[in-house]
């Protein structure tokens, strides 16, 4: 057979993937017709495409989850929305997400339809038997695909309904009552269909048990014909339904209602232009000039509320302008301005100005100490004099302590030298014995070497003599053997002169060898005794030498032992005297050290405080903290908290200095270190810089703080000077802001400086309001009237749309009633097709299981496998009954709870999302199974080619 290209499977497995489909359709003819004429290489290529497409197919759920995430996010936002503008934006976001899913699905469904047509063309190149074997599997696959796509869109729709209900709980976009009623109807139909299928399957099973192999091909064809016949009927029913939808009175009414609704969705609503103070008669400070809020030509439709210069823009413009005016009418607590409020603001201004001056002094202290571009100036810090005094006291004590340390280590060295001298002489006895033992050991070693050399020479001589005898004996034996052999030949062949001559020659060689052996034995007898005597003489000489050496060692040892006590005694007395001097020097050093250590850090019981250098540092930090701390707020995501900011300090320098001091106490090589304020200050340069920035931010705010350059509004933090509003306005030019007109920005962005300006502004606004109260309130009410009119126009359009939606719903119900019988017939034909498809699948899979691809090859074994498949289908359907009954009971329970008003529309919408997700997952499993069966069928047909 021609090799299939797998085009169909490649297309279908991407039919629900939210991705851009690439290159599966040719402009001239469907992809695969040309490749159909290929062979094994094209088949393998197509199989690869199928595998890749199957991997993409698994991303379908991810696309659905994206829509679900958009729905959930939109629902949360909807609950928090406070203005119509926010709700419009949420609706736009959800509708855009759902529209994208629908567009993707529509495009991929079109491609799947092209796949169907392509397969119809490809199958023309297959034999009738091959068509019969594959058609059922492809049809089952297409059916599963359509079902999955349907469930996918139902899942998307359920999410849209969930958000529609959240956005407009009382609107017509989502009908919860119909949803729960439809759920009961659907659950009942699913149960009825399953029970009817079981009856049909049992009938088919009884018939299957009478089948014969020769009839099986005809049975398969009959089932396929039944599906095709029913499919044609269903197409006619679809035409009837379409006619009812469009041509009947009810259908025409529905079309008209939808057109009316669509017209309302696209009805353009003009937004009146609005310019505040157009005639220039209002003389409120800050509101004296005409200001265009909404320009000419602004308008919107229900579907374009969020477009440029639409409802959303207009509402935002009015609300923002209203807030601008609001600050002239009400204070920050939404209370009308009063003289008492002004007095309170005056007191607040005084308090903030004092706070500014206090913290600015702290900034200046750190900035002066930081001394940008030069060495830090620690005398700028509060408490410097106390710290400097403590450092000077330490340095004044240092020379005496260092001298005592030097004297201690000098005494220690002298004592060590005295003891070394004593130990050197006190060991004379041991030295004498060590020298004696060394001499004896050396004599024994020399003796052993001499004896070993003599014996080695004797062994060599005897070995050489013996080897000479052995060699002569071996040569004699060889010569004798050759002579006997030669003489034997000569005796046997007496007339052969050559043999006789050879025997005589061999005899001569044997005689010479005998003489040589005699000579070697004689040499051994003469020379061996001489060698033995020589060795014995050498041994005797070595023994005499050893005895002399030991005697000399004895004499030297005895002499040394007699002299040792007279030398060591005086040295021991000198060493003990040196130890006494060490103890005296140590006591003096410890006394001086304790004095110095106390000047580093100690506890004063009288004042109950730490004194010394460390105490001065602690006092300095405490003094600075008390003077320049301030309260700060921070937000943890749920609650606001208050904490006290204090300048950043570090005791690391002091701790390092103290460690160096302590480390030098008993280290002879390390001098006790001197001290300076820079060595121990709690504010190293990095801390100074941090405190400068922190105080700068508190004073002037951090909104325009450049973290790379450490500056505030272009001025390095360590070079700030007290700024004015004019200074701030000038520097803001580099950020594209000419002047700070809105007081709230001062408050939020410019620290104490901004808050003081804000209070100034509030005082100015309050005075302006009290002076111009009637005009300001009239302006405020005028803007509010514009807002009310705009919202009312949209509410009016919303009411019209709701009424039109109800008319569409009523028309849909009339059309549904008109189509009810057609849909009943259609669903029954679809159910019958499902049963027939199950029978086709049973026969086709039985053919695969028994290894036959042609219908005329079917056997009784094929029938038996088909019967097993039918029995399995019956069992599978019977097993589904409890679950279907439970689903029906659950749907009826939800309907009952809804009718009793025990569950809300929102809960029904959320439940529908979960139910749709489960249905989509089940459809996915069916589609995967259909694909696996199709793969196996294609492989089987190809193998039987």
Summarize the structure.
The protein has 945 residues and is mainly alpha-helical. It is built from 24 helices and eleven strands. Helix 4 runs antiparallel to helix 9, helix 6 packs parallel to helix 22 and helix 9 packs antiparallel against helix 22.
Structure report:
The protein is mainly α and 945 residues long. It has helices at 7-12, 40-57, 60-80, 84-122, 128-167, 176-208, 213-246, 249-265, 311-329, 339-370, 384-426, 428-492, 497-563, 565-600, 612-628, 652-664, 677-680, 685-700, 725-731, 743-749, 751-771, 773-849, 860-899, 905-943; strands at 269-270, 274-276, 291-294, 299-300, 602-604, 609-611, 630-635, 640-645, 705-706, 711-712, 715-716. Strands 9-10-11 form a three-stranded antiparallel sheet, covered by helices on one side. The chain has a two-stranded antiparallel ribbon with strand order 1-4. Strands 2-3 form a two-stranded antiparallel sheet. A hairpin with a 4-residue loop joins β7 (630-635) and β8 (640-645). α18 (685-700) packs parallel to α21. The longest helix is centred in the last third of the chain and has 77 residues, at 773-849. The radius of gyration is 57 Å and the shape is flat.
Key structural traits:
11 strands, mainly alpha, 945 residues, single chain, two-stranded antiparallel sheet, three-stranded antiparallel beta sheet, disordered N terminus
Strand and helix layout:
Elements: H1 7-12, H2 40-57, H3 60-80, H4 84-122, H5 128-167, H6 176-208, H7 213-246, H8 249-265, E1 269-270, E2 274-276, E3 291-294, E4 299-300, H9 311-329, H10 339-370, H11 384-426, H12 428-492, H13 497-563, H14 565-600, E5 602-604, E6 609-611, H15 612-628, E7 630-635, E8 640-645, H16 652-664, H17 677-680, H18 685-700, E9 705-706, E10 711-712, E11 715-716, H19 725-731, H20 743-749, H21 751-771, H22 773-849, H23 860-899, H24 905-943
Antiparallel strand pairs: 1-4, 2-3, 5-6, 7-8, 9-10, 10-11
Helix pairs in contact: 3-4, 3-5, 4-5, 4-9, 5-22, 5-24, 6-22, 6-23, 6-24, 7-8, 7-22, 8-22, 9-22, 10-18, 10-21, 11-14, 11-15, 12-13, 18-21, 20-21, 22-23
């Amino acid at each position: 057979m021609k090799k299939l290209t797998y085009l169909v499977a490649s297309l279908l497995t991407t039919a629900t993937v939210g991705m851009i489909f690439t290159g599966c359709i040719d402009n001239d003819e469907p992809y695969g017709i040309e490749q159909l004429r290929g062979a094994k290489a094209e088949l393998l290529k197509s199989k690869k495409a199928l595998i890749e497409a199957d991997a993409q197919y698994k991303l379908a759920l991810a696309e659905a989850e994206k829509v679900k995430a958009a729905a959930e996010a939109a629902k949360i936002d909807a609950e928090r929305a406070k203005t119509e503008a926010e709700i419009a934006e949420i609706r736009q976001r959800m509708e855009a997400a759902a529209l994208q899913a629908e567009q993707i699905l529509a495009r991929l469904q079109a491609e799947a339809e092209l796949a169907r047509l392509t397969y119809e063309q490809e199958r023309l190149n297959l034999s009738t038997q091959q068509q019969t074997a594959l058609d059922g599997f492809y049809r089952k696959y297409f059916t599963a695909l359509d079902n999955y796509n349907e469930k996918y869109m139902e899942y998307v729709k359920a999410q849209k309904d969930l958000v529609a209900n959240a956005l407009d709980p009382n609107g017509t976009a989502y009908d919860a009552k119909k949803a729960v009623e439809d759920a009961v109807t659907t659950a009942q139909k699913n149960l009825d269909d399953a029970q009817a299928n079981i009856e049909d399957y049992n009938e088919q099973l009884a018939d299957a048990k009478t089948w014969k192999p020769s009839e099986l091909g005809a049975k398969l064809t009959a089932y396929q014909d039944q599906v095709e016949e029913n499919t044609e009927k269903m197409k006619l029913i679809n035409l009837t339904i379409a006619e009812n939808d469009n041509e009947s009175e009810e259908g025409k009414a529905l079309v008209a209602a939808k057109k009316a609704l669509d017209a309302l969705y696209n009805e353009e609503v003009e937004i009146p232009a609005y310019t505040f103070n157009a005639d220039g008669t209002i003389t409120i400070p800050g509101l004296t000039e005409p200001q265009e809020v909404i320009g000419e030509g602004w308008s919107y439709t229900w579907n374009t509320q969020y477009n440029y210069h639409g409802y959303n823009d207009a509402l935002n413009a009015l609300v923002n302008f209203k807030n601008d005016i609001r600050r002239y009418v009400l204070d920050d607590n939404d209370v009308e301005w009063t003289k008492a409020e002004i007095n309170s603001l005056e007191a607040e201004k005084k308090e903030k100005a004092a706070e500014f001056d206090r913290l600015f002094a702290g900034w200046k202290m750190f900035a002066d100490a930081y001394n940008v571009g030069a060495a830090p100036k620690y005398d700028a810090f509060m408490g410097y004099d106390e710290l400097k005094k403590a450092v000077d006291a330490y340095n004044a004590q240092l020379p005496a302590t260092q001298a005592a340390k030097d004297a201690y280590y000098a005494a220690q060295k002298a004592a060590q030298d005295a003891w070394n001298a004593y130990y050197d002489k006190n060991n004379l006895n041991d030295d004498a014995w060590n020298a004696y033992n060394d001499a004896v050991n050396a004599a024994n070693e020399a003796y052993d070497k001499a004896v070993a050399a003599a014996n080695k020479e004797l062994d060599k001589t005897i070995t050489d003599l013996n080897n000479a005898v052995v060699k002569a004996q071996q040569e004699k034996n060889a010569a004798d053997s050759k002579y006997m052999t030669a003489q034997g030949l000569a005796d046997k062949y007496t007339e052969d002169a050559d043999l006789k001559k050879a025997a005589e020659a061999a005899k001569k060689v044997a005689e010479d060898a005998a003489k040589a052996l005699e000579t070697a034995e004689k040499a051994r007898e003469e020379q061996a005794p001489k060698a033995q005597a020589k060795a014995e003489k050498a041994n005797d000489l070595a023994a005499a030498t050893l005895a002399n050496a030991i005697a000399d060692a004895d004499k030297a040892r005895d002499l040394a032992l007699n002299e040792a006590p007279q030398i060591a005694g005086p040295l021991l007395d000198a060493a003990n005297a040196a130890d006494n001097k060490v103890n005296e020097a140590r006591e003096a050093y410890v006394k001086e050290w304790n004095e110095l250590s106390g000047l580093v850090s100690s506890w004063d019981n009288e004042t109950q405080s730490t004194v010394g250098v460390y105490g001065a540092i602690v006092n300095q930090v405490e003094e600075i903290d008390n003077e320049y701390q301030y309260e700060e707020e921070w937000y943890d995501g749920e609650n606001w908290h208050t904490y006290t900011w204090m300048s950043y300090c570090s005791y690391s320098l002091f701790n390092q200095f103290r460690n160096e001091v302590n480390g030098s106490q008993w280290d002879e090589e390390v001098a006790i270190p001197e001290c300076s304020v820079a060595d121990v200050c709690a504010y190293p340069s990095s801390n100074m810089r941090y405190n400068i920035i922190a105080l700068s931010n508190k004073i002037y705010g951090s909104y325009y703080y450049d973290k790379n350059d450490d500056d505030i509004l272009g001025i390095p933090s360590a070079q700030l000077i007290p700024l004015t509003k004019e200074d701030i306005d000038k520097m803001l030019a580099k950020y594209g802001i000419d002047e700070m007109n809105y007081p709230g920005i001062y408050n939020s962005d410019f620290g104490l400086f901004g808050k003081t300006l804000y209070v100034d502004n509030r005082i100015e606004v309050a005075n302006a309001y009290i002076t111009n109260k009637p005009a300001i309130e009239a302006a405020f009410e005028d803007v509010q009237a514009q807002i009310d009119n705009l919202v009312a126009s949209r509410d009016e359009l919303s009411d019209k749309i709701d009424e039109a939606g109800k008319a569409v719903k009523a028309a849909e119900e009339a059309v549904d009633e008109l189509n009810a019988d057609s849909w009943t017939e259609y669903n029954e034909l679809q159910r019958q097709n499902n049963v027939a498809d199950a029978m086709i699948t049973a026969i086709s899979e039985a053919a695969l299981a028994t290894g036959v691809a042609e219908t005329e090859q079917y056997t009784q074994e094929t029938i038996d496998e088909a019967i097993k498949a039918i029995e399995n289908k019956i069992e599978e359907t019977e097993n589904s009954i409890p679950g279907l009954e439970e689903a029906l009971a659950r749907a009826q329970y939800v309907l009952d709870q809804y009718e009793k008003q025990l569950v809300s529309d929102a809960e029904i919408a959320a439940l529908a999302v979960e139910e749709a997700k489960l249905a989509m997952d089940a459809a996915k499993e069916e589609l995967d199974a259909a694909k696996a069966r199709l793969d196996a069928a294609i492989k089987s047909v190809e193998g039987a080619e």
